[in-house]
């Protein structure tokens, strides 16, 4: 891929939102988050439904890259990293160019991805310092993966992305957003065992939370404290060097 930068090289990057300051999106770093518009999946628990559609009726809602870069130039020395999230940021063909631009500004670069575009991920890896890879279901259960993402033929892509991350040696976290309505205790055990067998060392279990502002009738019910079972959590913890549970 030719990453020579021209004035128009980032015109196609579709930015739906920007968070200017956060301490939770890149481990150990103060960061900004650039949210890319669009995602091919429609996950049951999606927290960013407004970013799911690639095309917006009102394109004035999109944020131009020039504005983001101007902000980043002014914040040099005040924030440590820039994280690309979404939506699914690897959907956007301009992503590697944007990451190179950020890297040239001496920021660390992070990525939140579902792993659905392994080829694009491969193009981004030379610019990445950290990756958060979302795992939706056991890698060995393609039917359940399709039920959660509401998209067919996806697990082999996620596996390819995971293998790329591990092979490249970039810092990473695998994580799963869990709710008992779609992931049983047994499913969670299988999911973490699948990751362990792939050589994963870092895993975060994120318990579903209701998206702010969304009508309660459209949300899944709140997750109770007894999920997952304590015995299951103990088994999961033993599989990983770094294991964390995140609740509301």
What structural class do you assign from the helix and strand content? alpha/beta
Report the span from N to C terminus: 41 Å
Main beta-sheet strand count, sense and barrel state: 8 strands, mixed
Mean pLDDT: 92
Helix content: 25-40%
Tally of strands: 8
Strand content: 15-25%
Low-confidence stretches: 1-8
Strand order in the sheet with the most strands: 1-2-3-4-5-6-7-8
Whole-angstrom Rg: 18 Å
The oligomeric state is single chain
Description:
The protein has seven helices and eight strands. With 248 residues, it is an alpha/beta fold. β3 (81-86), α2 and β4 form a beta-alpha-beta unit. The termini are far apart.
Brief write-up:
This protein has 248 residues and is an alpha/beta fold. It has helices spanning 65-74, 95-104, 118-124, 142-149, 155-168, 185-198, 230-237; strands spanning 15-22, 31-36, 81-86, 108-113, 130-134, 171-178, 202-207, 242-246. Strands 1-2-3-4-5-6-7-8 form an eight-stranded mixed beta sheet.
Layout of helices and strands, plus pairs?
Blueprint: E1 15-22, E2 31-36, H1 65-74, E3 81-86, H2 95-104, E4 108-113, H3 118-124, E5 130-134, H4 142-149, H5 155-168, E6 171-178, H6 185-198, E7 202-207, H7 230-237, E8 242-246
Parallel strand pairs: 2-3, 3-4, 4-5, 5-6, 6-7, 7-8
Antiparallel strand pairs: 1-2
Feature tags:
248 residues, alpha/beta, 8-stranded mixed sheet, 7 helices, 29% helix, globular, disordered N terminus
């Amino acid at each position: 891929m030719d990453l020579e930068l021209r004035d128009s090289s980032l015109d196609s990057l579709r930015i739906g939102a920007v968070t200017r300051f956060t301490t939770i999106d890149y481990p150990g770093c103060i960061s900004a988050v650039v949210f890319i518009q669009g995602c091919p999946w429609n996950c049951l628990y999606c927290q960013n439904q407004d970013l799911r559609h690639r095309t917006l009726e009102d394109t004035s809602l999109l944020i131009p890259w020039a504005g983001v870069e101007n902000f980043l130039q002014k914040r040099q020395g005040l924030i440590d990293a820039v994280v690309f999230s979404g939506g699914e940021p690897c959907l956007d063909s301009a992503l590697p160019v944007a990451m190179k631009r950020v890297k040239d500004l001496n920021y660390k670069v992070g990525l939140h991805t579902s792993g659905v575009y392994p080829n694009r991920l491969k193009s981004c890896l030379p610019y990445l310092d950290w990756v958060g890879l979302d795992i939706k279901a056991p890698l060995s259960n393609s039917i359940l993966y399709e039920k959660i993402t509401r998209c067919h033929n996806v697990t082999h892509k996620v596996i390819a992305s995971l293998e790329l991350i591990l092979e490249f040696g970039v810092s990473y976290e695998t994580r799963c957003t869990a709710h008992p309505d779609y992931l049983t205790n047994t499913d969670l055990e299988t999911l973490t065992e699948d990751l362990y067998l792939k050589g994963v060392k870092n895993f975060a279990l994120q318990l579903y939370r209701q998206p702010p502002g969304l009508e309660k009738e459209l949300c899944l019910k709140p997750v109770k404290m007894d999920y997952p079972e304590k015995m299951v959590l103990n088994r999961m913890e033993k599989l990983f060097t770094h294991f964390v549970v995140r609740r509301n």
